[in-house]
Design a protein that fits this description.
Layout lengths: L3 H4 L5 E5 L4 E3 L7 E7 L1 E7 L5 E8 L3 E2 L2 H5 L6 E4 L3 E7 H10 L1 H27 L2 H16 L7 E2 L3 H8 L3 H13 L4 E3 L2 E3 L1
Antiparallel strand pairs: 1-8, 2-7, 3-6, 3-8, 4-5, 4-7, 9-11, 10-11
Length: 196
């Protein structure tokens, strides 16, 4: 995302957070731009029963939670560390100054946000129109297209629980469906790892 040598010119705070730490909560007003140096953040909604629904997961070099900064609207989800995480925290005024002074980075951020919107539209379509097998395969194929190569099997680096949270499918259904997909030759299981 934003190169370290650029963001550091704007005096960000460097945060070191342990696992399972909330960075902001759904409904909070955005005051900072966040970019992960190492570790992972998940964006989640928590229902009245305390169950998490994962909106997305982000790792090293990625940013998250930007749309509310631009719109000055409350966060639609909470941000929580998955494991120990180090990140940049840059005040929104400095973030806007950075984007004005680096239009190439502004354009890159716009492209990333557009991809995320397309992903959300695809997920919503899958969740409303298709069965569990189709949802899981479409999601894995999306990940492979974005992060894998066509010439070698793609490792789905998510747990069954994470797939459940991301796709709105019960974890038991994910486990059963992944086994069926493996039996049908759609995915390959190597131990607990899923490949396609």
């Amino acid at each position: 995302m934003i190169p370290a040598e650029v963001i550091e010119k704007y005096n960000p705070t460097k945060l070191k957070l342990p696992a399972d730490t909330f960075l902001f909560m759904e409904g909070d007003l955005p005051r900072f731009y966040y970019q992960i140096i190492s570790g992972q953040i998940k964006m989640i909604n928590i229902n009245t029963d305390g169950k998490e629904f994962m909106q997305g997961q982000f790792g090293g070099g990625q940013s998250f939670g930007e749309p509310p900064i631009f719109h000055n609207a409350p966060y639609p989800a909470s941000a929580k560390t998955v494991g120990p995480t180090v990140l940049y925290k840059l005040h929104r005024d400095k973030f806007f100054q950075l984007l004005k002074e680096h239009p190439d980075l502004h354009l890159e951020l716009t492209s990333i946000l557009t991809k995320r919107m397309m992903y959300k539209a695809m997920i919503m379509k899958e969740m409303s129109n298709h069965d569990a097998q189709h949802r899981i395969l479409t999601f894995i194929d999306y990940l492979k297209k974005e992060y894998g190569t066509n010439n070698e099997p793609f490792l789905v680096n998510l747990t069954r629980q994470q797939l459940s949270n991301l796709l709105g499918i019960r974890v038991e259904t994910v486990i059963r469906t992944v086994k069926q997909l493996a039996e049908n030759g759609e995915v390959e299981l190597r131990g607990r790892k899923i490949f396609r």
